[in-house]
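Schema walk-through. Below, the input block comes first and the output block second. Nothing else is stored per chain. Lengths vary across the set, and this one has 159 residues.
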Amino acid sequence: MPKSPGKRVAIRPDLKDGECARVSTNWRRQFLDHLAETSNVAASAARAGVCPSRAYKVRREDAEFARQWQAALAEGYLHLEMEVVRRLREGDNKTSGEERFDLANAIRLLAAHRESAGRAGATVRHVSAAEVRASIDRKIEDIRRRIAREKAAAEANGK
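--- output ---
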């Protein structure tokens, strides 16, 4: 059975500037696929043949599309991380021209967006905030126990 195109959202004429007269019924899938590849809303909207304002409005009004948007951004974040790791491993610090790829700024930007990407990943995996906190608490408790064991072992060896 074919998948439905998604919830219909009425778009005001002023949000359609620059769009074709007839928008593809697959624009959402095209938009989300390109968003996962690029993390660029404007470029993804252009690829899908819609205005960014349409994409944002649909995201506000369609919870499933908003969830898919977050999943695409989380995937895009992973792509960006892997690209930076690849460049670090291969010593590839050139862009397609002769300019240098700014690895330091790329790493800073990834760090700045890590929290929102993690939140998006948790949403995609349907993990609640309470479950995330509980997982963090368990990890912290494991670290405390390990430190206590190491401290006890050091004291036992020192006596």
